[in-house]
Amino acid sequence: MLFWSIYQRTDLINVKKQIKKYYTAFLGFISQKKFNQQFFFNTKTKKALLYEISFLEWTHLFNTHLDNEGEIARLESAKLIKKKMQKICKNVPVILTGDLNSSPDSEPYQQIISEEQSDSVTQLFDARSISQTPPHGPTGTFTGFDILAKPKFPIDFIFVSKGISVLSHGTLSDSFDGYLPSDHYPVLVEIVSDF
Asked: What is the DSSP string of 62-97?
């Protein structure tokens, strides 16, 4: 697993002024074992043999938490994440999850899904918008632990690259004994790799 500070660009004075907390991003690797069964018929022994061939398929998983106060800091962080993805991800599906502290119409969100800042692997899509079934639960995700809150827009996202299909997407608004488990609703997707 790799970790890096998403504020490595210390030359940006405006970003440094906006940083209130130290945020990081991490990259993990997910492997999925696939099995392929092959039958072979030996003409000498007249026996059929079953071979099971397995191989690993990799997916890069990035997770981040962008600054909650500085718009410039969030935008520069989004740019750096995309740059890291282009450097690290070579023909491997990508998943990016995290709290962007930004709405879908914001610059950081647009940077994440931008075609201009992407190659064929790092072109990302909001899982909610490409889900094969209608999204479950509320659209908004930040509640501040207020069980009566009705958030209007999401700030927590799951993005996927080409090669990953989103079967379903949900924002989970469950509470327990009148309390929410977090100040954000969890976001859940069911995905399958097309590779």
From this structure: EEEE--SS-HHHHHHHHHHHHHHHHHH-SS--EEEE
